[in-house]
Amino acid sequence: MNNRDQRPNPYVAPFSSQQFGHNNHNNNAQNDLNAQAHYHNNRIVAGSNNFNQLPSSPNVGANQAPSFQLLSNTRNSRNALGHSHSSRAGATGNSPSHASSHNSNVGINNLAQPPSSHHSVLNPAAANLVVGNSTTGSVQISLQPPPGFPPLPQQQQQQQQQQLQLQQQMLQQQQQLQQLQQMQLQQQQPPLRPAPQQSAATVNNSQRRIRTASRSTRAVSNSNSGVPPVANVNHGGTSTGTTRLREISRKYPLWLPEYKRRAFNASMDEKYVETIWASLKNAIQEIQKKNNSGLSFEQLYRNAYNMVLHKHGNRLYYGLREVVSEHLENKVRQDVLESLHSNFLPKLNQAWTDHQTSMVMIRDILMYMDRVYVQQKDVDNVYNLGLILFRDQVVRFSEIQKALREKLLGMVMEERHGEAINHLAIKNACTMLITLGINSRTVYEEDFEKPFLTQSAAFYKFESQNFLAENNAGVYIKKVEARITEESSRAALYLDKDTEPRIVRVVEEELIKKHMRTIVEMENSGVVHMIKNSKTEDLACTYKLFSRLKEEGLKVIADTMSAYLREQGRMLVKEEENGNTNPITFVQNLLDLKDRFDQFLFHSFGNDRIFKNVISSDFEHFLNLNTKSPEYLSLFIDDKLKKGGKGMSEQEIETILDKTMVLFRFLLEKDVFERYYKTHLAKRLLLNKSVSDDFEKNMISKLKTECGCQFTSKLEGMFKDMSVSNTIMDEFKSFVNNNNLSLSGVELTVRILTTGFWPTQTATPNCNIPSAPREAFEVFKKFYLDKHSGRQLTLQPQMGTAYINAIFFGRKTTDSDKDKDGPSSSSNGCTVPTTTRKHILQVSTYQMCVLLLFNNRDVLTYDDIHQETDIPERELVRALQSLSMGKPAQRLLVRNSKTKTKEIDPTDEFYVNDAFVSKFHRVKIQTVAAKGESEPERKETRGKVDEDRKHEIEAAIVRIMKARKRMAHNLLVSDVTLQLKSRFLPSPVFIKKRIEGLIEREYLARTPEDRKVYVYLA
């Protein structure tokens, strides 16, 4: 154990020949010995039945220590077993030569065994321990005189016999001894602990305490006042043993020295105290002058120890304070003041370093005062006292404090302007201020950090105004980033680590927070300008800078971006409403806008949650501004899933479908989309226009993931009907062949559709089918109804297709003046042939009905065609536009109109284009893409959607009430809305109407006590 952690014993010198920091193993075991022993010859035999271990703790204080207790019997109260500076008792092993001739019994009571590493007067490690008694055995200890002394005279057998008799006598006096001991202890001093119980082997009638010094255990004082323990003498009866003890002590005075009643006087006279203090004061002053090489630290430590031990710690403590304060005031402060205008900071740092070094040395000398007096009086320890004095006398002296602050702040400002400074000097000064705070940053904060932050705020406030006036947003942001990096590096280099986040916050406050709106809204360079010009890197820098302000800063950018995005979305909606864009272009523009902002989201904004939510919210807002969005989105998907879709690869189609699903999630009326999607899917399946069944099923799977099985159950049923229809047609063909039936030259294919799955019209559309295909259908109808009795077949002409064999005879010369819009003006530049040509035309059922009319007439007006075919007006217009105004290579009819617009008038005339030319034998006539439903059709669709919603709302109400049994109106409306929001957002008024309807049909009932509460009727 290091000597710095031990308290020396007051009975011996605290240091051996070794100095601080070394382990001393010479006579430094400190134990309390209460000796009650009867000495005969030169050997002591100790027998005991009570070998008890006293409590031992690694933290032995000033009033506690492990001790040996030996009981001795002597008449002379002045004789006490111990040791002095000049001689000490030594313990040796048991020698056979002495054991045979010299015997003396000693009763040992409560022998407390110290750690084996300690050396004591009676060293247990050198004793001969003989285990023998009932419980703990007996201990046999041989004591030898020190080397150089004559041996003890030999004793006869008779004396041994006397010794045994003496032991028997002493046993009878045991009770008397205990009483005498208690009385003596009460008279002399308060006992350290209750007197131990005497054993039967005790032969002593007096008790003494012997203390030995130990460098490896802590000194123990007799009371809280620090007075050293004294040897207690208990007078007992007389015996021959006492006489023999006196004879031995006279013959060997060094071996058994006589001590006074107390080892030290209880107090020191003032003159002696001042003498000791004068030596300590001189030593402290020499240390401060760096002349400590000739000092004896051992003697200085001993002097300080004695002063504290004898209750003069107050004189020592405040004397030290006076000396250090005087030195700092008269010497250190004056030296620093002289250097205020030259070499100030290095001089102050040197004075601080010297002061630290001297206080460490002084602390080592006064270590005992730190451990005893400082703890008892609850005052600052020596080193902290030196810090406080240096702080008050030097650093916080008004002139020095002001000069230090101005110097540090000035050096920082110089570096901000690009000048080189002494970083180490500033770092040492800041470290000094932090150390002077003594486990607190108060000194550093008050003397430097707070003025530093205030000065920095003023500096950057002025600089921000200049930056904004001279630069655009992009340059300003880069300058701010550079300043933040500089301040962070500066703080990490020579300021306290806790200053870094504080100075960075000041820069952020002055350069960013106070100018957020100005930066993002700066004309021709702000966030909107960056978005318009796709400046991804500048946006990324802006985002990185504003993210320092957490959500507050990012919200400013997000709000600015949101305003621009909503403006762009409203423009797209307005263009569609004005008729400037068709549904496919409208949706494609939305996807392009979404792709653009997704690029900003991933590359500029780090996929930040705030920006992601803002973009989604904005698209949901303006997508639902247009009530036609569900229909247009379905038309867009229909366009991409049709065959021959603009030459896109399968991967491109898959990517577009994924993007479309993103827009689909923003729709609030998903049930409206479902109705339109069913219509468009039906056409693709029935007209065999789907690019692939795999793509169709994949799209249905995506919808199923988003909306659940109920949403796609009917779509999956449509695919099932197509499979069943193929089977039925195979059976029909076998039936025709087996019965030799005639179909009037028509190859008929019929698709049997389940009414609940397909978007068929309840009322069959009017259409006069030509005679040949109508007769073929009647044959199939009879076949099917015979096989499936009870079913009905309703023809749906709007969903059919036809293949027509057409013959073109070439253009007539008389038609040249009449044909204004004919193929002669087409872009292919081909010569009009005059020979006959045959083609197979793939057309819709309505187009077939129109074309077959020209077998009987050459020219027909629009009104004539409408009257002959009875096709719905909207579908007829689409059919005529496809046949006469489609691609030049697909114009089978020629329109003769008084206007040049694409709108068909009732008086427009149509005739067959005999000059039709195509390099393909099979020609597919594309139907003009629909611009969406007409207003009457849209109202009809909306009515069907509302009807479906009634059933869905009622079903949701019944499900909820069946589970809850009883609910209040507002809570029921909330639950219904939550359950249906994945398909559409029902209004509270609509839900209330459906509740009323269920009450009328006795599914629900109001409670008598509260009419706003409903109960479910089972």
UniProtKB/TrEMBL annotation:
What the entry lists under Gene3D superfamilies is as follows: Cullin Repeats, Cullin, Chain C, Domain 2, Winged helix-like DNA-binding domain superfamily/Winged helix DNA-binding domain
Where would you find this protein in the cell? Nucleus
Task: Specify residue ranges for compositional bias: Polar residues.
Answer: 106-120
What's in the keyword line of the UniProt record?
Answer: Cell cycle, Cell division, ER-Golgi transport, Isopeptide bond, Mitosis, Nucleus, Transport, Ubl conjugation
Chain positions covered by the region annotation Disordered: 1-31, 77-120, 137-160, 185-242
InterPro entries for this protein? Cullin, Cullin-like_AB, Cullin_CS, Cullin_homology, Cullin_homology_sf, Cullin_N, Cullin_neddylation_domain, Cullin_repeat-like_dom_sf
Q: Which family does it belong to?
A: Belongs to the cullin family.
**Protein's recorded name:** Cullin-3-A isoform X1
Q: What is the lineage of its organism?
A: Eukaryota, Metazoa, Ecdysozoa, Arthropoda, Hexapoda
